[in-house]
Write a structure and sequence with these properties.
The protein is flat, with a radius of gyration of 36 Å. The strands form 2 sheets. A 5-stranded mixed sheet has the order 1-2-3-4-5, with helices on one face. It has a 3-stranded antiparallel sheet with strand order 6-7-8, with helices on one face. The protein folds into 3 domains: 59 residues; 123 residues, 2-Layer Sandwich (Heat Shock Protein 90), CATH 3.30.565.40; 93 residues, no CATH class. Strand 4 and strand 5 form a beta hairpin. It has 7 helices and 8 strands. It is α+β, with helices and mostly antiparallel strands.
Length: 304
């Protein structure tokens, strides 16, 4: 509306100018040459067009640079975390028969100190798991009437922590548990934790990615590519299995017995472990796949 008013006012001005030129000719202007009148008309048209173009430019600013410069891009701020190793000491009766070490993670940046409240849930989960294994150790050891028959250090529990990403976007933690038990196969188990730095809450996969058929297709393609040298079991149907993993837990567990999703995020990739999904005897254990962030960027709910 403002643009129309401005153009209208400029047109009115040119109209007045044209009227004045005509009046001056009628009142005895010494030049009655037709060519002079036509030149004057051309000048009026030129002035009118000039005002119209200026009005349009003022309203739209077509030459204004609206591109985003490098200075406008805000890089995520790094958050420094420290890891301390703690231990659960055995009771006197079991001295020397087992050892248990587990980490405690804390924030060292003063400006992010409140995140320690969010990390407290992670640290409690880690410690609870360590205590659970200690109880299992002691129950197993108690079955032996003569503890001297046990080898030195027959039971051990260790957890290593890899902080794969730690910035103002997300804190991602990969925990690997390694359990050695006398007369049992070693146990390796992965637990992952993803934390929102703004409030310390735990982020689930649906908080980070839009779970839909297109996203599932990306996962299936990545698994097929990374397991291209393996022959899948006949019962494997990746398209259905991955969809059921995220949307139909009952159907998934009927086929694969149990379900556990572990995932962590680095600065370039997202690592997934689909617990329970054994698809080939070429690679023993759960299905693991790494997907570049760029391959799933269209489905992200947060800016990685």
């Amino acid at each position: 509306m403002l643009l129309r008013k401005k153009i209208f006012s400029q047109v009115v001005m040119t109209g007045v100018l044209l009227l004045l030129v005509g009046c001056s000719n009628k009142e005895g202007n010494t030049s009655n040459n037709k060519e002079d009148v036509e030149v004057s008309q051309d000048n009026v048209n030129e002035i009118e067009n000039k005002y119209i173009n200026e009005a349009v430019q003022d309203n739209q600013n077509p030459t204004e640079d609206v591109s985003v410069s490098d200075e406008d891009v805000v890089e995520p701020e790094e958050i420094s975390l420290s890891v301390d190793v703690n231990s659960i000491n055995p009771e006197e009766a079991y001295e020397g028969l087992y050892r248990c070490e587990y980490p405690t993670i804390t924030v060292t940046n003063d400006e992010y100190a409140e995140l320690n409240n969010g990390l407290e849930l992670v640290n409690e989960s880690i410690k609870d798991k360590a205590e659970m294994y200690v109880d299992d150790f002691e129950k197993t050891i108690s079955r032996y009437s003569d503890l001297t028959v046990l080898p030195e250090d027959p039971y051990s529990y260790e957890m290593s922590v890899d902080i794969t990403r730690s910035d103002s976007v997300i804190i991602s933690i990969d925990c690997l548990t390694h359990v050695e038990m006398y007369e049992y196969h070693p146990i390796y188990e992965t637990d992952t934790y993803n934390i929102n730095p703004s409030d310390g809450s735990i982020l689930e996969i649906e908080d980070i990615l839009d779970l839909n058929d297109d996203f599932y297709a990306v996962i299936c393609n990545a698994i097929e590519a990374q397991y291209s040298d393996a022959e899948f079991y006949d019962y494997v149907d990746l398209t259905t299995d991955i969809k059921n993993f995220f949307e139909n837990e009952d159907e998934y567990e009927k086929k694969y017995n149990y379900k556990k999703l572990s995932f962590y995020i680095s600065y370039e990739d997202i690592w997934f472990e689909f617990g329970g999904m054994e698809i080939t005897d070429y690679y023993a254990g759960d299905t693991v796949v790494t997907i570049p962030i760029n391959d799933v960027r269209d489905y992200l709910k947060i800016q990685l």
